[in-house]
Specification:
By secondary structure, the protein is an alpha+beta fold. It is built from eleven helices and 33 strands. The protein folds into four domains: 4-153, Serine Threonine Protein Phosphatase 5, Tetratricopeptide repeat, CATH 1.25.40.10; 161-426, Neuraminidase (6 Propeller), CATH 2.120.10; 430-509, Immunoglobulins (Immunoglobulin-like, Sandwich), CATH 2.60.40; 516-632, 60s Ribosomal Protein L30, Chain: A.
Length: 632
């Protein structure tokens, strides 16, 4: 149903004609005014009957045609709405030229852009009969037609697949979100409530199996309650979920954002995320970054650019920062909503009725160029966007699959969730992941260690999380074309270092942390040298600076830096090279302020291989730099 029809059609007509109706038939006017009252009270059947009677008495009664079209729109008889407006144009369009606009407007609403274009062209041919305000409306509608037709002439690949009966039901199922490994799909459903005549929103999930998605299950309490919960988002590792709940005790507004954590066994009781984000206004549609530390959401609070705006907040050691409006060019004077921040951390998908597009609300993509600026939004194209309102899309970590909900296609009832292959031109950066588990090297006890991922070349933090408290498991996303330093650490243990890239990483890591005792050692897998040289490569800086931070945090620890080579080359050269490389690391740490008394260095040549030197890959492992604790 579209209340917009009442606003646009009735009041626009009323302002044009006031009590000077296009009909002077008193019986027709009386029936029309009776229909207005029935329309206002949503007695559409009675309104339709009165309007048909009025038009029988005067088939040139323009206002009656307008209102009857409104009845058809509200009762979802859209073809009839256009038919009745076409009749109005045929009978009295030349006398009441604005009827062409009414017809064109509804044709645009139904996606008949070329038909609308013809009517607008005719209207503009008689522009002298239009007021300045009317002319502006016509030009705006014409511009919308041109944009829509352009998109429709260049469609993007789009073949949506219904996710089936294990996900979708006879009810409305929507707002999907998925973990970075594509294994868990979470979504919202509007289902009958046993405690209320009004349907309620609850959260459901399904797990990927060899046979497809498992039968959906409802989240139990304390997540689902008799109130409404929905519009959820989950961190890449599946350990943090954030969602919207309405009319909850202790809330700040009608709908607030809540957060819950998964420890490997159970979800914690959801907590209101607090007044730094929630207000007396409407906050909803949260989207978490991969590490769960950056939150995008929608609010109608003051200080925005339009009706609904997108905002962002970051979690720090002392809580969430005051939300910042994303600003132009993504936010407009209209409704900008349903943000989805991809796992790459820089690609934002959202819905808007304020940008130039195909329908009432289109889907867009924008990329964060730096810490502050977004690119001009890119329309996702037709037929992803249609003349209807598109309200949300998510894209999986790899960028290959997109998910959305709709009632436009063959469905099991109401809105269903669909998947399609993401067209190349709207894909984000491809993100993959590595899974692992952290434990004590001696006791094998699982550790909730800190997991950090830094860009090897820039040193910028890409991901930060913790292994699960219950079982030490973790998952780390990373952009495929980049290279990273993975750092795993836990209080009382020596850190672990790994080089992460699509070429070097295994699908799973079994990480054993060593306690801070004399003899514990770590291989520095992100310290690099030029070939046959002791010159540190620039990308070594990220790892070396981490060592500086570790030593500053543990001021009683002393290290020996050991240089190691493979068995190629002469013994003398290997001894010399391994010593020079160890000294290069030593010199860097000293220059960064580490006391020389806490460091020593030594070259071991090829005397301590970690594997045999029989292959190229093995020799690469033997060429390494190590830290060994010499004093605790």
């Amino acid at each position: 149903m579209r209340n917009l029809w009442f606003i646009i059609c009735f009041f626009a007509s009323f302002s044009l004609f006031a009590q000077n109706y296009s009909s002077d038939n008193k019986h027709a006017v009386s029936l029309y005014e009776e229909a207005i009252q029935n329309f206002q009270y949503r007695y559409f059947e009675d309104a339709e009957e009165s309007l048909n009677k009025a038009l029988k008495k005067d088939d040139g009664f323009v206002e009656a045609y307008y209102l009857l079209a409104g009845v058809y729109v509200e009762t979802q008889r859209l073809e009839k709405a256009i038919e009745i407006l076409q009749t109005c144009v045929d009978l009295c369009g030349e006398e009441y030229i604005w009827t062409y606009y009414k017809l064109a407007f509804e044709q645009v609403e139904q996606g008949l852009f070329r038909d609308a274009q013809k009517n607008l062209k005719h209207l503009l041919s008689q522009s002298s009969a239009l007021s300045e305000k009317e002319l502006k409306k016509v030009q705006n509608l014409k511009a919308k037609c041109l944009v829509a037709i352009k998109f429709m002439e260049h469609p993007v690949p789009f073949d949506p697949e219904n996710l089936g009966g294990n996900i979708n039901t006879e009810f409305n199922d929507y707002h999907p979100t998925i973990t970075v490994d594509d294994q868990v799909l979470i979504f919202t459903s509007l289902i009958p409530s046993p405690q209320s005549p009004i349907d309620q929103e609850d959260l459901f999930y399904s797990v990927q199996t060899d046979n497809g998605w498992s039968p959906r299950k409802s989240f139990s309490e304390p997540i689902n309650t008799p109130a409404n919960q929905g519009a959820q988002s989950i961190s890449a590792d599946g350990q943090r979920m954030i969602f919207t709940a309405c009319n909850m005790p202790g809330g700040y507004g009608s709908c607030d954002i809540y957060i819950t954590e998964f420890d490997g066994r159970t979800w914690s009781k959801p907590q209101n995320i607090g007044e730094a984000i929630n207000s007396k206004y409407w906050e909803s549609q949260p989207s978490l970054s991969a590490d769960g530390k950056t939150l995008y959401f929608v609010s109608n609070r003051p200080g925005g650019h339009g009706k609904k705006d997108m905002w962002v907040s970051k979690q720090t050691d002392i809580g969430w920062t005051p939300p910042k409006n994303l600003g132009e060019p993504v936010n407009t004077s209209g409704n900008d909503e349903s943000p989805f921040i991809h796992a790459d951390g820089v690609t934002l998908y959202f819905a808007s009725d304020g940008h130039s597009g195909v329908g009432k609300s289109d889907l867009y993509k924008s990329t964060l160029k730096d810490a502050k600026h977004w690119t001009t939004p890119q329309n996702l194209g037709y037929p992803i966007n249609t003349h209807t309102a598109e309200l949300r899309i998510i894209v999986n970590a790899s960028g290959e699959k997109a998910y959305f909900s709709s009632d436009r296609y063959t469905s099991l009832g109401g809105q269903d969730i669909y998947m399609f292959d993401t067209p190349d031109q709207i894909r984000p950066n491809s993100v993959t992941y590595v899974k692992g588990v952290v434990s004590d090297v001696e006791t094998k006890k699982r550790l909730p260690a800190n997991i950090e991922l830094y860009n090897l070349h820039s040193g910028a933090e890409f991901y930060k999380s913790k292994a699960r408290y219950a079982d030490g498991n973790f998952i780390v996303p990373f952009v495929e074309q980049d290279e990273y330093v993975l750092r795993v650490w836990h209080k009382g243990y020596l850190f672990y270092s790994e080089n992460v890239s699509l070429q070097t990483i295994d699908s799973s890591l079994d990480i054993s942390l060593q306690p801070l005792i004399v003899g514990s050692k770590v291989i520095l897998k992100n310290v690099f040298f030029d070939v046959d040289s002791d010159k540190l490569k620039p990308e070594s800086k990220t790892e070396l600076d981490m060592i500086v931070r570790f030593m500053n945090q543990n001021p009683t620890i002393s290290f020996e830096i050991g240089g190691h080579t493979d068995n190629t080359g002469s013994d003398a050269r290997n001894r010399e090279l391994s010593t020079e490389r160890a000294q290069a690391v030593y010199n860097y740490l000293i220059q960064k302020g580490i006391d020389a008394n806490r460091l020593a260095y030594k070259g071991y040549a090829d005397t301590k291989p970690v594997v045999d030197n029989s292959t190229k890959e093995n020799r690469a492992q033997n060429r390494r730099t190590e830290l060994v604790i010499t004093k605790k």
